[in-house]
Amino acid sequence: MRLRSIVFPGVFTGLIGVVLLAAPLARADDPYTVSVINYEKIPAGASYVTDLTENTELTSNAESALKKALANRGLDYDTNGTLGFAIGTARTVGTRTPDAVFDTTNTILHLNLNSGDIKGTPRMGHSFRITLQAYDRASGRVLSRGSVTNDQPDADPLGVTAPMIEKLLGGMEF
Fold first, then answer.
1. Domains, in order of start, for the chain
2. Mutual orientation of helices 57-72 and 157-171 as an angle, nearest 10°?
3. CA angle 126, 129, 135 (to 5 degrees)
4. Residues 51 and 86 sit within 8 Å (Cβ to Cβ)
5. Residue 21, SS3?
């Protein structure tokens, strides 16, 4: 009997440890913030054109990813298309506060210790945003608009563009 009482708590503790270790692996945090407003459904099988809000490498890359994603949804690119997709990108990179500042007027060295965690401290992080608007070219009527943002500081904008476009189009109604 004594052996059973020792084995059961040991097995129970081991199972709890395995569950706790596996829990972070099973959790998948979504790195994207998506905001979409649908006014009308985007017609299936329609032809479209793309409009770039600015001529940059990031926007051109987003346009290529958009064309692939729309082709997978059955839409065809045509310079005389009935729909228009206006796409834009914006990348913001915040300046890092210095780790130390030397004040020459009073010869005091100011050290910033863990200053990023202070509540209320204004910080500008790294972010990458893609905006998209679908509209009818004949009437100018907006069918859907939205944006997707990735706030991960180590994310490569060229590498995350395709999944961000897929996430954005997933919120639009086709």
1. 2-171 (3.30.160)
2. 40
3. 170
4. yes
5. helix
pLDDT digits (tens, 9 = 90+) for 89-116: 998 876 555 666 777 778 777 666 655 5
Question: What's CA 106's distance to the chain center, in Å?
Answer: 45
Rounded CA gap, 135 and 125, in Å? Answer: 32
- Beta strands, E only, the chain: 32-38, 47-52, 76-77, 83-92, 100-103, 108-111, 127-136, 142-150
pTM comes to 0.68
**Dihedral sign for Cα atoms in the order 74, 77, 81, 83:** positive
Neighbours of 73 (CB within 10 A): 12
Distances (CA, A) of 20 to 11, 13, 27, 29, 136: 14, 11, 12, 17, 52
Token pair of 102 as six digits:
């030397």
Tell me the C-alpha distance between 75 and 81, whole Å.
10
Q: Which amino acid is at 35?
A: S
The DSSP call for residue 15 is H
